[in-house]
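Attaching the record inline, Q. Sequence:
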Amino acid sequence: MKIYYKVITILLFCVMTFQVGAQKYKTVLPYRMVGGKMIVDLVMNGTSRSFIFDTGGRTALTGEICEELGLTVVDSLVVTDVNSKKAAYPLVSIESLMTPDQKINFKHVSAMKLAKPSPFECFHTDGLIGSDLLVRTIVEIDGKNETITITSAENPSTVSLRKMLPFTKSGMPIILLQAGAGNNITALFDTGCPSFFSLKVSDYETLKTTGAFQVLSEGYGEGSIGVAGMAEADISHRVCLPVLSVGGTKFQNVTSETSTPPFTLLGVKLLDYGKVTLDYPRARFYFEANEAVNDLSSKHYNVALRVKDGELIISTVWSAMKGVVEVGDKVTRINGKPVRMYDFCESIVNGIPELKGKKKTRLTVQTKQGEKVIVYQKE
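Structure, as predicted:
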């Protein structure tokens, strides 16, 4: 199960004000990683609040914080979430959204009001900061130092144009990648996506006869959770791309699972391999790689697990386990010891302690045919 909690939609503009007398501005915003999400702190209407920083999403607030602050609905907007589900959301206006150093103050920010309970509860945040808030700025994201530098855009970035890819759509970091030789993939750089690369199903169908990737496994399981709800269980594929090029940087042996967002996603783990700069006004994406060539060879588990109502269940079954266990089967023992009740949010943020760092784990699973013991391992 993937938890993205995002929206991908049209952009609305807000007003920015800066320190008195300042024509140029620069602020360095630290972030921290929590459960695969970038978390930043901003001052909203005078109080420090935490937000998910999500270049693939649109600025949004939880229903709880909207009620706490008494924010009134001013409009509505139909959006498309990570599962390509459409839903209408009310819009509220944030009077002030300021960086902690007070160098930038976004005024009268339009934000979606999400339904309760909060989809961000596990991350202890009050909302999401999306690309719509940043469309007049240049944003540099440094994964090594975990900082986001936001600067005024009167001059273009000093990064070499040889490291630049143009946005294919103004206002969103949507760029062209290359899979193998001559196979273009339109991808959204999405810091809300916790993986390195997530291949859209329609792109999978387009590329599967081109030799751009090798199919490793077929799976059946639950989809990701978006702001409009969980996707229906469906077939997915795990593929390996021998070469994926981000501009002049090559990534070898890139593994991806197919999914159903509006775009193929280039996720937050790109920041493990270099620095990203987004020049929104000029619609430019820059990637300063640490290395020109990177090998991402990896193995992946034969089933996926998730916590539901405190119990550990099978959420996706890959080829090696097909016919052995099914989606929804319950894990009753781990290495012979009875399982305990698990906290959903704890599992999202920190995983299942008994499974972390182990190459192989014996799971006792309650199936329709009775108890079975399987080996939970990477393949």
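The chain has three domains: 7-152, 161-270, 303-377. The CA atoms of residues 329 and 367 lie 5 Å apart.

More tomorrow.
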